[in-house]
Specification:
About 40% of the residues lie in helices and about 15% in strands. The protein contains 6 helices and 6 strands. Strands 1-6-5-2-3-4 form a 6-stranded parallel β-sheet, with helices on both faces. It binds magnesium ion.
Length: about 160
């Protein structure tokens, strides 16, 4: 349940070839710390190019974030992607909405995100492929420290 299909350093390592290899033709994409620093307005380095590359390969993308719509909207607009905020990942509601938009069978969908407890667990529960990306920037605060420590423990088990 906690195990991603792939664990990569950054989003730009997710190539169309790699996706095809694992039978993926649609993506449910996280925002915070996957394609931008948490709550920042600017997208991360290389993300715009990456989105173009993926789209040109005929792979569709929907943004699904647990953040508020108003925080996700500017990023979605820059990237010209459909989006859903308040996704409540790992729960199924948001994923279900995203799937409707993609019109692809569950097995052909990959969830891409930086968090095991929301993106990966949620994606695995829905029967999607899951790709864990290293967070763009380490978060501050006790809540995050505990969370990331637990993630590290889990990831070490899979090594
Ligand atoms: Mg995230």
């Amino acid at each position: 349940m906690f195990k991603p299909n792939l664990y990569l350093d950054s989003i730009s390592q997710v190539t169309p070839e790699l996706l095809k290899e694992i039978g993926v033709c649609a993506i449910i994409l996280d925002v915070d710390n996957t394609i931008r620093q948490n709550n920042k307005k600017e997208i991360g380095f290389g993300v715009l190019k990456w989105v173009e590359l993926i789209k040109n390969a005929g792979i569709s993308i929907v943004i699904l974030s647990n953040n508020f719509n108003k925080s996700v909207e500017p990023i979605a607009k820059i990237l010209n992607l459909p989006y859903y905020g308040l996704g409540f990942k790992p729960f199924p509601f948001g994923f279900k909405k995203a799937v409707k938009k993609l019109k692809v069978s569950d097995k052909k969908i990959a969830v891409i995100g930086d968090q095991i407890f929301t993106d990966i667990v949620g994606g695995n529960l829905q029967g999607f492929k899951t790709i864990l990306i290293k967070p763009i920037k380490e978060e501050k605060g006790l809540f995050w420290r505990i969370r990331r420590k637990l993630e590290k423990k889990i990831l070490n088990k899979f090594k």
